[in-house]
User: Which sequence fits this backbone?
């Protein structure tokens, strides 16, 4: 059978050089191909190039054959007419920004449609039904809908012109885990019923494993490996694929140390004629930097761009920079958990309530929680569960309507004794100040000498020279390290981490999680982790609280709660997490 | 809009109107106290250039109830003001109400004309700039609007007078003209003078708003579905309308400031020129009445802007109805 879509020599050229090296791609009707990679891998650029929607200053090259029509990817607006919509449609990541906020959902779905008003609105109703939404949604505005419903509206709009190929760029990354599963199931169902090709762009190996027939792994603008989902994820042929897989924190056990990949992704145009991964690769030899390795077939339909592919295949996870293969931690007996042994609680939150103006349900509805000195406690829940409001109340950024927050040793200096690290490392630092100035400012506020800046940077694993840099010159992971250093500058007793690793790539996330665990031991820190990610909670916490709609529905030792959840809701959360690893049974 | 959605809108409008009344009340107290802030004896100030004799001073004190407590004076003044009686001009002795009524028409015509000119021209130019960001058209219009914002109105007025009235002879030097067409012909240059500064501001505002929306995700998404250039631009404009419309209301205050200079430059008998004379001659009743009138217009336009804001932005509508 001939392919529905076949792309030859797709490359993307930015103002400073090649952003994507030539890539070939083929897609059959009904097939799902996942393009997997971390930020900077060029996966989103590839998706945009396939719809002619690259930002200004960025050009594509290559040819595309879709349903018998050939198109030059460098074509202007007119060339894409007739391809976009009916040929290829693009579903974007963020349902909160991909719909116009001032137009009704029905109008937005109907924009691409032709015909009389009545036939259009009938078609909109059909499309809404197809994505599992009631007809009344047509008259509603996006702000009146939840994230999952918005993404369904966007999906209906993308399908309005009956595309042959749907490109979904991180379609569920902005959604809660249970919603994520629903939307992915929906996309899969529609793909089957419409016999549509699907290109799934994702950073999430678990999503790729559970949804894709074939996987393309990209790194620094290069295709490093491709093959069937099982082949790529079970017997990775490229060290990067293997290491990336190793970074994925497991949900079913706690590791003493998470595997991570030291360093960061280089800019595609800085690499030159070499393997882009070589500087971070444990297996690199001279041949790796002599020329860019070509894709070599290593199995049926399975190819990798690595000169040492044969050797790598022996060890699926590969050696890690941080030592031997991560070992599972012995599960502590329930009695050993610090919080339950009568140790003095550092933080005691009792019956906290908070209702926001104009909302129907309270953000916090009688939440109680205890954190012992030196303990690490996770609060997990989906958006709207109240976990962030809880964190903000503990730090003092938000005032509860009722209830109490007690800190051992009195409430004196709570502002200093409790520090917070936010989710987005890009907006958490003042872009106008150097890292050194930011840290000195905080040190001065705490009455500590400014000379400690170097020590602080060293503490979070950054070179002292970073003090002179501005946030712009730092990667996301490095910025988050600075944010942690800033929080530690005032020597807090309790560090609140509000989704502090969820904006980071998985390899960087592992680095930061390891750092936090080290810091906790070295400084006898107490951690309160706010996260939506159960696997992260598993890795960092001794005890966990599961929140839903402003209430704690379940709490206890992390091992026990995640291994034997008592509540339906916790079970549902766990069941929704797609795993990147082969399931044991 | 269904009735269920209209009700919160009406309630909101009423609430805002009540707020406007409260604001005007405060303003009226401040305006009334003006005569107390001016240096010198109040009775002498109120006499103006009339002869100062013990009898005339006593008469003025009686007329303005200056021997009564402040609250009583204010209450009397407010009662009269609400009936349109702001007393008599110190300079001419005419009733202030009539004086303003005679002059306000010219000012309203200039301001209205300038507003329409600047909005039509400014919004169109702003959209053109945003769509072709970085093109020569964009660069010319943007640098032109920097010039327009920074050029003082009297200088622009003199330049226009010289070029179009003296040199080319297309427009008259002064006067207001008779009838609609003649009136428009006479007021064209003053209105244009006022409009240039304003339009420059509108260009920058529109360009920024449209450019921001053009970069939004929903534009990429709409284009990816095969929507044409025109359809996408319509969606963008509907979104960009929110910040543009709300900022236009703020321009009204600027209009009334600018009209004073323009009316003086073109020797037009408008309310702006009257204001200038009144301030110069310490003609308190006229200054009070004009200040209140401008305050009323600015406050009301703020209410109108807020209501229009609700109409163009459904998100806000949702928030209001939740209160």
Assistant:
């Amino acid at each position: 059978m001939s392919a529905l879509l076949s792309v030859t020599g797709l490359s993307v050229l930015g103002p400073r050089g090649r952003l994507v090296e030539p890539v070939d791609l083929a897609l059959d009707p009904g097939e799902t191909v996942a393009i997997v990679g971390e930020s900077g891998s060029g996966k989103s650029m590839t998706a945009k190039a396939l719809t002619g929607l690259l930002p200004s200053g960025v050009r594509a090259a290559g040819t595309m054959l879709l349903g018998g029509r050939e198109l030059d990817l460098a074509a202007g607006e007119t060339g894409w007419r007739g391809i976009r919509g009916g040929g290829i449609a693009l579903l974007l990541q963020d349902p909160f920004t991909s719909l116009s906020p001032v137009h009704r959902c029905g109008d937005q779905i109907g924009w691409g449609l032709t015909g009389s008003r009545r036939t259009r609105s009938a078609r909109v109703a059909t499309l809404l039904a197809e994505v599992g939404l009631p007809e009344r949604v047509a008259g509603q505005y996006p702000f009146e809908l939840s994230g999952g419903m918005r993404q369904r509206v966007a999906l209906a709009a993308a399908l309005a012109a009956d595309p042959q190929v749907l490109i979904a760029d991180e379609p569920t990354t902005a959604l809660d885990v249970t919603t994520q599963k629903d939307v992915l199931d929906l996309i899969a169902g529609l793909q089957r019923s419409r016999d549509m090709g699907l290109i799934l762009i994702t950073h999430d190996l678990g999503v790729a494993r559970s949804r894709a027939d074939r996987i393309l792994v990209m790194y620094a603008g290069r295709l490093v490996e491709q093959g069937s989902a099982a082949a790529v994820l079970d017997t990775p042929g490229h060290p990067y694929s293997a290491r990336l897989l190793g970074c994925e924190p497991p949900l079913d056990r706690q590791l003493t140390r998470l595997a991570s990949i030291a360093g960061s992704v280089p800019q595609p145009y800085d690499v030159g004629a070499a393997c882009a991964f070589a500087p971070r690769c444990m297996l690199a030899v001279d041949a790796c930097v002599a020329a860019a390795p070509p894709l070599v077939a290593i199995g049926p339909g399975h190819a990798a761009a690595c000169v040492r592919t044969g050797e790598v295949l022996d060890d699926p996870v590969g050696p890690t920079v941080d030592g031997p293969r991560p070992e599972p931690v012995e599960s502590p007996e329930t009695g050993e958990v610090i919080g339950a042994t009568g140790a003095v609680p550092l933080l005691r939150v009792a019956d906290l309530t908070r209702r926001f103006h104009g909302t129907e349900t309270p953000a916090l509805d009688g939440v109680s929680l205890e954190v012992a000195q030196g303990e690490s406690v996770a609060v997990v829940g989906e958006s709207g569960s109240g976990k962030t409001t809880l964190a903000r109340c503990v730090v003092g950024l938000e005032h509860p309507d009722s209830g109490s927050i007690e800190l051992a040793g009195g409430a004196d200096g709570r502002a200093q004794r409790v520090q917070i690290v936010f989710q987005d490392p890009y907006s958490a630092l003042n872009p106008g100040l150097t890292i050194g100035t930011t840290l000195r400012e905080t040190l001065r506020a705490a009455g500590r000498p400014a000379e400690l800046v170097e020590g602080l940077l060293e503490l979070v694993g950054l070179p002292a020279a970073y003090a002179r840099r501005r946030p712009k010159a730092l990667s996301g992971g490095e910025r988050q390290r600075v944010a942690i250093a800033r929080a530690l500058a005032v020597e807090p007793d309790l560090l609140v981490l509000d989704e502090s690793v969820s904006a980071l790539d998985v390899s960087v996330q592992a680095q930061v999680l390891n750092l936090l665990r080290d810091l906790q031991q070295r400084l006898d820190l107490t951690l309160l982790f706010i996260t939506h990610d159960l696997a992260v909670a598993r890795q960092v916490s001794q005890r966990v609280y599961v929140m839903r709609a402003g209430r704690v529905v379940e709490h206890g030792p992390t091992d026990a709660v995640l291994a034997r959840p008592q509540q339906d809701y916790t079970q549902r959360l766990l069941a929704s997490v797609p795993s990147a690893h082969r399931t044991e049974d | 809009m269904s009735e269920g959605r209209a009700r919160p809108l009406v309630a909101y409008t009423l609430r805002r109107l009540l707020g406007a009344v409260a604001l005007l009340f405060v303003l009226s107290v401040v305006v009334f106290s003006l005569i107390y802030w001016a240096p010198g004896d109040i009775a002498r100030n109120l006499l103006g250039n009339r002869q100062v004799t013990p009898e005339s001073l006593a008469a003025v004190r009686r007329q303005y109830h200056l021997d009564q407590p402040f609250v009583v004076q204010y209450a009397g003044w407010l009662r009269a003001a609400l009936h349109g009686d702001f007393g008599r001009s110190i300079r001419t002795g005419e009733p202030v109400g009539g004086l303003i009524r005679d002059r306000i028409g010219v000012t309203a015509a200039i301001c209205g004309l300038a507003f329409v000119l600047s909005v039509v021209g400014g919004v169109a130019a702003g959209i053109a700039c945003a769509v072709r960001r970085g093109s020569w058209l964009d660069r010319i219009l943007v640098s032109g609007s920097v010039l327009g914002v920074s050029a003082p109105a009297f200088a622009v007025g003199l330049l226009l007078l010289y070029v179009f009235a003296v040199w080319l002879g297309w427009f008259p030097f002064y006067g207001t003209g008779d009838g609609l067409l003649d009136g428009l012909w006479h007021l064209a240059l003053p209105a244009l003078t006022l409009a240039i500064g304003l339009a420059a501001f509108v260009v920058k505002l529109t360009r920024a708003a449209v450019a921001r929306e053009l970069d939004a995700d929903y534009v990429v998404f709409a284009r990816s579905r095969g929507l044409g250039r025109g359809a996408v631009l319509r969606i963008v404009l509907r979104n960009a309308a929110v910040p543009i419309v709300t900022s236009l209301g703020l321009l009204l205050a600027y209009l009334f400031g600018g009209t004073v200079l323009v009316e003086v430059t073109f020797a037009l008998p408008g309310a702006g020129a009257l204001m200038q004379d009144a301030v110069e001659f310490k003609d308190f009743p006229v200054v009070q009445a004009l200040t209140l009138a401008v305050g009323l217009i600015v406050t009301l336009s703020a209410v109108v802007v807020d209501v229009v804001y609700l109409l163009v932005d459904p998100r806000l509508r949702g928030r209001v109805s939740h209160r």
In short: The domain at 106-280 of chain B is CATH 1.10.3720.10 (MetI-like fold). The CA atoms of residues 246 and 309 of chain B lie 6 Å apart. Chain B has two domains: 1-91+282-323, 106-280.
